[in-house]
Structures are given as structure tokens and as C-alpha cells.
């Protein structure tokens, strides 16, 4: 056996509801999940002693021991595969992929093994693994460190994909994902991890919304913005700016990326008649294409304009000086809203 | 660090154990010969990769395993399944793509899995299995139950990054894992003498700080002894071992393979090296088993495989509803 915990885990619920960033909320969520279930393990590169390069696992190895927070060699296939083996033997591993692009060396194990074991075993085998992936740009890094690979996985049946955009969701969605019996890829907006202005009060005694449900964040009448992850903030800012000019925009946070929960989007489009899908990912064969296809199928007679998209470019993710040009921002979103309104 | 074992003594196996081992090898052989024949009729869908010739490996290793232990297999996985206790009748149905199969007809030859037997699955991805075994081995270590994980993989997979990552992981974490490299000489049509940049796959063990052993894969007793040592060591906390088993597969890479890349080695192996012939000769000459006892096993196995094929042919196909079942745990 590996080393026992150095000391008893701290209780997270003994103090008043704290104000947390997304990064801290994720850390609290991991702590709560580990306290709730001794089968929850954390594994990944530098997650133990260092606490992760983004410090999301900070302090957890110290409190829960090396047998529950495992530093791994640099080997993403090995990490995912090991997690699968642990899961079929009753554990609930939470794997940290250090940066979005580093998931590609583990892609085969996720797509060829993790996604298919339940189906292949007549439903006898459950593989309750969470793969945490810090994703998206905006931190001045380059390709492999700023990517949005979600569409590569949403194309694979058997995986669930979710993305949080705020501290309260970060806290609850991660715990719900860990309790889910299906494999969940958990996409975290890394550029917002430590943004102090986004701090929220996270009440561990509150009742969370369901994990696999999208949510209307702001009601509006002129057009709908549907988005997820780091682009939620951009869309909310756009809606605030549009409101100052008298345009009322509805904003929907998808939260669950696969399977999609599009009923609230259909309902919104039937009201506004216009939809703009916003994502940092390249546009071709992406989640935004899927949304456009399904909305035209379900809401054809309600649409006053084609579904428009604001996305990253169909290029490799660019270095720093081109990043602002690449990423959807307030101006691009508002410009596209204008196009939809004047179609 | 690599050592080559000479043929050992019959070891600790009693008559019952020997007969079990023979039954397993014989079941694999007849199963595979029959799949070969039936595939030629066109009734079996997809691809099949047959294990005939390699029976001593799966049997010699799995005869040491119990319910605590798990194995991961390859695209050539029928033998591993049978040796780990998966029902050959259900397996045959699976290969026929039928609803009564081990995986409901949704896995096929290359994905037969039965977790209730600790069989994590045959695997259509070359090198897909070793990482999974690091996981079950880590689970066994955490649960402190003495269990081990065994990854069977081929000479082709020995060059995959997943395999090398797993060897390293197992050594770093001192896992109760055994890596069995089944070197049948060819990854599809590519010779391992060319594709493996070392004299032996087992030589690579030194680079990962674990023992490496080479055994004659046609000799059940050699495999059994080498696996026994490695598995005992792993159960006692001594960490992983890499065992290279060398032999020849009797059929092509897949059924339909023209095998232009190799010549007379199969005929020679079948005639002079065959694991079943050698086993029978050895145990009867030593007086450990009567020839008649082995003949009885032969008849029972023949009847089993016959009924497996009959049942598989008669079984219902999966439906569209089955296709949409068990993609997720909950919907």
C-alpha cells in the first residue's frame, strides 16, 4: 500500500459560504468529492506535490495522501488507461489533463476504450471516470495549450462532455460529474480560473441544477446567443452592451456539450427568431455546426435569419499576437447580432 | 537482466491441474480450427484472427490466475478469453454476431469481453490493453487483495507507445502487473526481426527496471513456470515482469491472409513443435496422465465446440433496439 494520509482531511463545510474563483471552486469540489467517497482518486501530471500547473488540486495530496492523489509520469494514454482499469475495479478516478492539446496522446484510450466498454459489455461494466481538461485560449500560450478540442469528442458516442463557465457551476458540476456512472470529459475555461472579478459565493448546502441541462442566463427578445465555457462571459458582456443600445439579447449557457440539451435553445429561438452560436473552437464540423443544423430542423418556421456563428478560425491556434484576432470577442459578437437583426 | 529458461520439470501441477491445462489448450485449438473452417463458408462476419499454435501462452499464464486477477487481450484474443474462463458457447455466438454472445453481438471477435471473469476484452487497437492493466493492477494494490493484472500483447504492440508507457508506469508504481509479449514473428506481414529494434522484446525490460524473461511458447511447462515466478513475485509486492513468449501462429494474421511473407515455418511448427503434441507426449511418457484420459478430453471438447457452433447459428441477431442500448448508463 502507498502512504497513508498525512492528516485527516479538513472539513470544507464548517465555515460560511466562501467567495470563490472558478479555480478555487474546482478545488473545493474535488475536496468535497474525495471526502464524500473514498473511491474517488485524482491522478495526473504534477497534480500531487505541485497541486497541478493551474493549482486546481492544490493541497489535496497533502490532506488525502499519495494513494488518493497520484502523480503520474508524462503519459496521457497511460493515465487514461490506468483510470479505466481502476474504474472497472470500483474506483472513480478523476484524471487531470494538463493542457487541452495534451489530451491527444490519450485520444485513443478515450475514444477506443473509455467510450465503448459499457456498450461492449452489455451494460455490465461502468466506467465512471472524469477527465478534466483545461481548455480554450486567452492566456498568451500557443497551440496545444489554448485549444478547444470538444468537437473531436462530441462525435464519439458513449462520452459525456460538460463545460462550466462560473464558480457555482464549477463547484457543483464537477461533483456531479464525479458521481455520474458514465465517463465525463469536463472542460474548464482555463483563462477564467483565477479571475477575481468572477468570484461568486459558493454555498455547499445549496441544491444544484441538474448536470446535463443547459440554462438561460439572461432573458431577451431580439436574438439568442448560445454558447459555453469561456465564451459565456463574452456573450453576457455583449448582451449588456446591446441592452445599452436598446437591443434585448437572450443568453444560453449550454453547460452540457454532449449529449446536447437543446430544448431551451429551440424554445428561445421560437421566441426571438434569431440565433448566434458562439465558441472559441474552429467552426467546421463543430458543436456550433451541430446546433445550427438542429435548430434549422426544429425551428425552421420561426427563424427570421439564418443561424450565424462566431467562432475561432479554421486554422491552427495562433501565437500570442494573433490570439485577440482569433478569439470571439464582444465586437465580433455584436457585429454578428447586427447581421442577424438586419438580414 | 534477460534470461532464457530451459525446459523445466513438470512442476507442481497435479494430474487434475495437468488435465485442466490440456482441456484449455485443446478447447482453444478446436475452437480456432472450427472458426477457421466456418469462416471459409462465409457465415461468420467481419475479421477473425486465430490463436491456434499459441495455446501454451494463454493457458500457461492463466492457469495461475483466479477471480482477483484480470487480463487484457489483443485482436487475437479467443485463446486468452477461453483460458480466463469465458464461456466458449457465448464466445462463438459473439463471433457469429448473435444476440446471445458474450457482448450481445455488439463486440465481435475482436472485442469479446467478460468482466465477470476478469477478462477486460480482446482489443481492436494494437497496444490498447497494457494501460488498462496498469489500472486493474493499481486497483489490486490499493485494495491489497493480492490480485495481479496481465497484459497480453503482440510483437507489433511491443513497439506502441501505450505499451512502453505502461511498462514504465508499472515499474514506477511497482504494480502487480505482468506483461506477456506474444512474439509470433509477424505484426500482420511485418517480421518482428525487422520491426523490433532489439534482439528480443524481453531485452527492453532492463530499460524499465524490471525482470525480462524469454520462454519457448510451444512449451506449456516453460510458460507455466516463468509465469508462475512472475505472478508470485507480483502478488508479494515484487513488482512487474516482462515475459516474451516466442512461437508461430498456425493461421494467417487474419482469415483470408495469403501469407506470402512466410514459408515453411508453420508446417514445421505443427509437426515438430506443437504445444498439444508435446504436452501429450510429456505427460504420458512421465506417467502423469493416461492417454485415454486425454482422449476423453478430446471428445468432450469436440462435443462442446460442435454445440457452440450449432447454438451460434441458431441464435437470434441483435436488433436496432440493441444498437441503442448501453451506450450510456443513464439517459
TrEMBL record, chain A:
- Write down the Pfam families for this protein, in alphabetical order: Transket_pyr, Transketolase_C
UniProt domain Transketolase-like pyrimidine-binding: residue ranges: 20-195
* MF terms (GO), sorted A to Z: magnesium ion binding; oxidoreductase activity
Query: Does the entry feature the keyword Oxidoreductase, yes or no?
Result: yes
Judging by the UniProt lineage, the source's domain of life is: Bacteria
- The UniProt transmembrane annotation reads none
Its needed co-factors are: thiamine diphosphate
Q: Which UniProt keywords apply?
A: Oxidoreductase, Pyruvate, Thiamine pyrophosphate
Under InterPro entries, the record lists: THDP-binding (IPR029061), Transketo_C/PFOR_II (IPR009014), Transketolase-like_Pyr-bd (IPR005475), Transketolase_C (IPR033248)
PANTHER family for this protein:
PYRUVATE DEHYDROGENASE E1 COMPONENT BETA SUBUNIT, PYRUVATE DEHYDROGENASE E1 COMPONENT SUBUNIT BETA
Mind telling me what this protein is named?
Pyruvate dehydrogenase E1 component beta subunit
Source species taxonomy: Bacteria, Bacillati, Actinomycetota, Actinomycetes, Pseudonocardiales
Automatic annotation (TrEMBL), chain B:
As cofactor, the record names:
thiamine diphosphate
Q: Write out the GO MF terms.
A: magnesium ion binding; pyruvate dehydrogenase (acetyl-transferring) activity
Sorted alphabetically, the Gene Ontology BP terms of this entry are: pyruvate decarboxylation to acetyl-CoA
- Tell me the organism's taxonomic lineage: Bacteria, Bacillati, Actinomycetota, Actinomycetes, Pseudonocardiales
The Dehydrogenase E1 component domain covers which part of the protein?
24-318
In terms of PANTHER family, this protein maps to: PYRUVATE DEHYDROGENASE E1 COMPONENT SUBUNIT ALPHA (PTHR11516:SF60), PYRUVATE DEHYDROGENASE E1 COMPONENT, ALPHA SUBUNIT BACTERIAL AND ORGANELLAR (PTHR11516)
| Residue ranges that the Swiss-Prot or TrEMBL entry lists as coiled coil | none
Q: Which organism is it from?
A: Tamaricihabitans halophyticus
Sorted alphabetically, the keyword list is: Oxidoreductase, Pyruvate, Thiamine pyrophosphate
Spell out the protein name for this chain: Pyruvate dehydrogenase E1 component alpha subunit
